[in-house]
């Protein structure tokens, strides 16, 4: 796998206004194709989790390769439709869908609502009834599988706001049977994000098998098995592992999921499809020497990339201004942004090539949950993007 940066590329950054997201469109394409090839082998359906990146060029590339869209708000449903995803390729999840969002999705006849509670099921039935429509739904079941990941991004444990817990399932079946404006499609799961332990997905398969069996024993036909997303990426070695191991991932589901002839398997991948394809490029503004530390103050902050401040996430940081000079010494720095918060720090004791004012710094693996989380806090100007094929 090639490296994302070389001096010819960095040369083209010079003079551009920083900070900006740099998208490697070739790498994105390679990643999407790798996922497509690995999933088609088993006839699996892949939806892209739009919340991880709603950049228009990224979404277009994803639509072109033939994946669907997994949305978590009315805004994302609209964005997916604008991008050209067909309504039959759109699913809509989320614990707090508003009436307006449900109505928007009903008007657009989306493929499926992923329903997260008994109460929500009742409301969707009622709103669909008012329109004389039938809403297709999958029930998001909380499988009580520990994703072994950061507690902020674990979603599949019992004490969690996401999904229907096992003890509520009988109530779901009763409600389904009593709901004239609901068409039951299947079951949905999503146990967390940045999952690198493949055993988590094996455990998930075992639960899915149990739960779909439970539904079918009660006379409810399960057509769709939606196993969510969560496949992790290598934040520490972005160049060595620039494409996630889709082969192994999909093979696990093929080996461990009991798929009946009338069933389809659906996935909702976000991070694994886009994370490695972008870096946040920022410029060194100031060097500051503390008593025991040296600080590099850069012109990007948590307003452009929030993950480090939000969940202490690691992003590899590189000084890309001296790629052709292997002899430059390195030094540990705390890399901090301009925002008035102590948590506005991208990394502590980061070993970087000795920095000068004006050097370009890359924060790697920033294509997922990066640009989408940008904010206007401190009245920042909003984020810019640069694409490798438009340099
Ligand atoms: C966030 C989310 C995903 C995507 O998760 P990744 O870890 O980015 O793959 C999929 N499904 C649902 C319901 C989500 O909330």
Automatic annotation (TrEMBL):
Which terms in the Gene Ontology molecular function aspect does this entry carry? Answer: diaminopimelate decarboxylase activity; pyridoxal phosphate binding
Catalytic activity annotated for this protein?
Answer: meso-2,6-diaminopimelate + H(+) = L-lysine + CO2
CDD domains in alphabetical order: PLPDE_III_DapDC (cd06828)
**Could you say which enzyme class this protein belongs to?**
lyase
Q: Which residues form the active site?
A: 340 (proton donor)
| Required cofactor(s) | pyridoxal 5'-phosphate
Named in its record, the pathway it takes part in is: Amino-acid biosynthesis; L-lysine biosynthesis via DAP pathway; L-lysine from DL-2,6-diaminopimelate: step 1/1
Q: What is its EC number?
A: 4.1.1.20
Q: Record's SUPFAM superfamilies?
A: Alanine racemase C-terminal domain-like, PLP-binding barrel
An example GO biological process term is: lysine biosynthetic process via diaminopimelate
N6-(pyridoxal phosphate)lysine-modified residues are 51
Q: Where is the Orn/DAP/Arg decarboxylase 2 N-terminal domain?
A: 33-275
Q: Name one Pfam family in it.
A: Orn_Arg_deC_N
How would you summarize the oligomeric state and partners of this protein? Homodimer.
Q: Which family does it belong to?
A: Belongs to the Orn/Lys/Arg decarboxylase class-II family. LysA subfamily.
Role according to the record: Specifically catalyzes the decarboxylation of meso-diaminopimelate (meso-DAP) to L-lysine.
- PANTHER family registered for this protein in UniProt: DIAMINOPIMELATE DECARBOXYLASE, GROUP IV DECARBOXYLASE
Name of the protein: Diaminopimelate decarboxylase
Task: Please name the source species.
Answer: Pseudopedobacter saltans (strain ATCC 51119 / DSM 12145 / JCM 21818 / CCUG 39354 / LMG 10337 / NBRC 100064 / NCIMB 13643) (Pedobacter saltans)
């Amino acid at each position: 796998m090639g490296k994302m940066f070389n001096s010819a590329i960095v040369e083209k950054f010079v003079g551009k206004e920083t900070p900006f997201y740099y998208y490697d469109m070739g790498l994105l394409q390679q990643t999407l194709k790798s996922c497509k090839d690995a999933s088609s082998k088993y006839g699996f359906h892949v939806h892209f989790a739009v919340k991880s990146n709603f950049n228009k060029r990224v979404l277009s590339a994803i639509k072109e390769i033939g994946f669907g869209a997994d949305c978590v708000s009315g805004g994302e449903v609209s964005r997916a439709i604008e991008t050209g995803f067909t309504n039959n390729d759109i699913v809509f999840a989320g614990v707090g869908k508003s009436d307006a969002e449900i109505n928007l999705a009903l008007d657009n006849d989306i493929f499926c609502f992923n329903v997260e509670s008994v109460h929500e099921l009742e409301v969707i039935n009622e709103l669909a009834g008012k329109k004389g429509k039938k809403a297709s739904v999958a029930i998001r079941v909380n499988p009580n599988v520990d994703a072994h990941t950061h507690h902020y991004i674990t979603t599949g444990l019992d004490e969690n706001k996401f999904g229907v817990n096992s003890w509520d399932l009988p109530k779901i079946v009763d409600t389904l049977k009593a709901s004239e404006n609901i068409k039951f499609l299947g079951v949905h799961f999503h146990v967390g994000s940045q999952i690198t332990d493949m055993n988590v997905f094996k455990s998930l398969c075992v639960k899915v098998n149990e739960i779909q069996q439970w539904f079918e024993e009660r006379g409810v036909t399960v057509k769709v098995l939606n196993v969510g997303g969560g496949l992790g990426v290598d934040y520490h070695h972005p160049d060595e592992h620039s494409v996630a191991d889709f082969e192994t991932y999909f093979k696990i589901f093929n080996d461990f999921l009991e798929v009946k002839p009338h069933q389809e398997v659906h996935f909702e991948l976000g991070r694994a499809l886009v994370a490695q394809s972008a870096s946040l490029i920022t410029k060194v503004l100031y060097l500051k020497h503390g008593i025991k530390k040296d600080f590099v103050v850069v012109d990007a902050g948590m307003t452009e990339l929030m993950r480090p401040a939000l969940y202490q996430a690691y992003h590899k940081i590189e000084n890309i201004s001296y790629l052709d000079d292997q002899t430059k010494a390195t030094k540990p720095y705390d890399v901090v942004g301009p925002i008035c918060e102590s948590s506005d720090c991208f990394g502590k004791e980061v070993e970087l090539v000795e920095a000068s004012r004006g050097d370009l710094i890359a924060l790697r693996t920033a294509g997922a949950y990066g640009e989408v989380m940008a904010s206007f806090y401190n009245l920042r100007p909003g984020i810019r993007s640069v694409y490798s094929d438009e340099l």
